[in-house]
Amino acid sequence: MLLAVSNSGTLSNTLKTHIGHILPKDWSATFRPDSRRPFDSRLDVTTPRGAVGHFVIEFKARFEPRDIDAVIRSSQQLPKSQRMLLMASRLSSRSRQLLREQGISHADLAGNIWLSSESMLIDRTGVNKFPTPATERRPRSSLRGPISGRIVRFLCDARPPFKVREIAARTMVNPGNVSRIIAFLEQERLVERSGNGAVTDVDWEALIRRWSDDLQKERHAETFLEPRGVDVMAERLSKCRMQYAITGSFASARLAPTIVPVAIDVYVERIDEAPDLLSLRASERIGNVRIIEAFDPVAFERTMSRDELVLASPSQIAADLLSLPKRSQHEYSALLDWMKRHESDWRR
């Protein structure tokens, strides 16, 4: 396994010490030089029962998702008896996801460690926030906010290629903001760009999952009760002149049925107007109607119609299934399968 952190002696020694602290009790770590190179060091991890995992380590000061290809090539050169351990001062959640998908062990100073071999598995999550030195410009690290949401939805719902200015014109976002967000997404390996900067490919499934982490942080919603059930609420919505878009489990069930939904989630422009227009009863303890204030007008774009109801875009429904309370992984997986089979219907 490969460890990615800097070649600096101070940093590598810090990381070596850190490994010893985060290993389970009674496990031991032995570091030794790599006499053959090109790796920085080697690590033998021994369990209390005597099983030993052999790892090859390389230290780097910085690792980003876009660097994954070089790590994969290095790991493929190792004999079966050795694994690669990537160790860095910091590893983002996206970096850790890509490394894990490739079976590459990794660890950082935040306490995140995933150590895997034929004889052992250690999986611990530390923190995802890292301090930024005062002399270093704080890099973009999230997709929070309506502008990011608007661009994410465009990238998921449209088919590339498109240049930055085209994205800016179609989303009505300043080109400078678009450029910075695209640069962040490229760094996270969520989009690919050509030599002239045009976006040529979008990993829309991974992008939806990444965006959902930030989408839930700024959601403003209130819960209400419709005593006669969600079907009565749905019928009321079908006759309502208010702008709305249904999301969550109820919307997913209209596209990829798995279970009978017992609640309904609805995007509206303003929550304070919804109770009167939809004859809803406030509920402090239990409710079956969640009214969500749209984070941006894009929540009402690229909608779909089913049974005289307006459903949000499948990409929006998927992101909400991952982030709404009481969400179901089974429903999300079913919707994702539907999206892959019907990509030409919703992504155009």
Count of alpha/pi helices: 13
Q: How far apart are the first and last residues' alpha carbons, in Å?
A: 41 Å
Rounded Rg? 24 Å
Strand order of the largest sheet: 1-2-3-4-5-6-7
From the coordinates shown, what is the CATH architecture of the largest domain? Answer: 2-Layer Sandwich
> Roughly what percent helix?
25-40%
Overall pLDDT confidence: 86
Structural class: alpha+beta
Major pleated sheet: 7 strands, mixed
CATH hierarchy class name of the largest domain: Alpha Beta
**How many runs of DSSP E, i.e. beta strands?**
16
Question: What is the chain-wise order of helices and strands?
Answer: HEEEHEHEEEHHHEEHEHEHEHEEEEHHH
Strand content: 15-25%
Write down the domain tally.
3
Unreliable runs: 1-8, 132-138
Summarize the SSE layout with pairings.
Layout: H1 9-22, E1 28-33, E2 41-46, E3 52-60, H2 68-76, E4 83-88, H3 93-101, E5 105-108, E6 113-117, E7 120-124, H4 146-157, H5 164-171, H6 175-187, E8 191-193, E9 199-202, H7 204-215, E10 221-225, H8 230-238, E11 244-247, H9 248-255, E12 264-268, H10 274-278, E13 281-282, E14 289-293, E15 304-306, E16 309-311, H11 314-323, H12 329-341, H13 343-346
Parallel strand pairs: 3-4, 4-5, 12-14
Antiparallel strand pairs: 1-2, 2-3, 5-6, 6-7, 8-9, 10-13, 10-14, 11-12, 15-16
